[in-house]
Amino acid sequence: KQEVTQIPAALSVPEGENLVLNCSFTDSAIYNLQWFRQDPGKGLTSLLLIQSSQREQTSGRLNASLDKSSGRSTLYIAASQPGDSATYLCAVKNYGGATNKLIFGTGTLLAVQP
Amino acid sequence: NAGVTQTPKFRVLKTGQSMTLLCAQDMNHEYMYWYRQDPGMGLRLIHYSVGEGTTAKGEVPDGYNVSRLKKQNFLLGLESAAPSQTSVYFCASRVWRGETQYFGPGTRLLVL
Fold first, then answer.
1. How far A41 CA sits from the closest chain B CA (Å)?
2. Which residues of A touch B101 (CB under 8 A)?
3. Which residue has the higher pLDDT, A66 or A1?
4. Which of A98, B7, B76, B92 has the fewest beta carbons closer than 10 A?
5. pLDDT, position A35
6. B3, B5, B25, B12: which is closest to B78 by C-alpha?
C-alpha cells in the first residue's frame, strides 16, 4: 500500500531564505507526483506536476524534483516571501486504474516571517 | 468561471441527522471527487464519478452515498451522521484527459 510522508510537519523561516520541503513515498511505481498549496480555510491549488519520466519541474520561484528510485521528492522555494505561508501537500498517483486517484501526504505548514 | 463551488461552507449536525453536501463545477469536467481531510491525515478519497450517472467507491466510502444526476453536480449524502464524520470535505474535478484536479473551498462539518 502506497504511503506518503512529509517532513517536517511545520517549518518557520525568515523572509528571503531559500527552503526545501520533503516528500517521501513507499512504492516507487508512481505515475506522477503533484505538489499542492493549501491556504487556511481554502481548497487546494496545484503548483507543480512531475511525470514519472521527469526529474524536475519549475514554475517561477518553485522547483520540484523527483527521484523515483529513492522514493523522494523535494519542493524548493527560492527567496521565500510572507505570501508563501501556507500548507504544502504532495500527492502521488500510482500506475493502474483510470480514476486519477491521488494519495496525499499530511502536509508541511510553512510560515515565512517578515 | 466560478470553478468548483461547495454548499454549505459550514454545518453542525446532531448524531443521527442526515444532510447533503453539494458540489458544482462550471468547467464541463467529466471526473468529480469527494475527499475528507482530518488532522494528522492526508486527504482521503470517499467517492468519485467518471461521468454523469456513474459513481464509484473510494478509500473511505462507509457512511456516505453520492449521486451525479447532472454532469456539473456531485452530491455527497450522510444518511445518519456520526461524530467520526466530523471533518472538512473537499470536492474536486478534472477534465477527462487531464492530470490536474481543481478543488473547491471545502465544507466544514461538525457532528455532535
1. 7
2. 44, 46, 100, 102
3. A66
4. A98
5. 97
6. B12
| pLDDT tens digit sequence for A13-57 | 999 999 999 999 999 989 999 999 999 888 899 999 999 999 999
CA angle A79, A74, A1 (to 5 degrees): 155
Contact A43 B100 (CB under 8 A): no
3-state SS of chain B is CCCEEEECCEEEECCCCCEEEEEEECCCCCEEEEEEECCCCCCEEEEEEEECCEEEECCCCCCCEEECCCCCEEEEEECCCCHHHCEEEEEEEECCCCCCCEECCCEEEEEC
Q: Are A18 and A110 in contact (CB under 8 A)?
A: no
Residue A94 has a pLDDT of: 86
Phi-psi region of A11 (alpha: psi -120 to 50; beta: other; left: phi over 0): beta
Tell me if B41 and A106 make a contact (CB, 8 A cut-off).
yes
Cβ-Cβ contacts under 8 Å, A91 against chain B = 42-43
Subunit contact B94:A41, Cβ cutoff 8 A: no
> CB–CB of B42 and A103 under 8 A?
yes
C-beta neighbour count of A8 within 10 angstroms: 11
CB contact under 8 A, B45 and A100: no
What is d(CA B112, CA B110) in angstroms, rounded to the nearest whole number? 6
Instruction: Identify the residue with better confidence: B42 or B69.
Output: B69
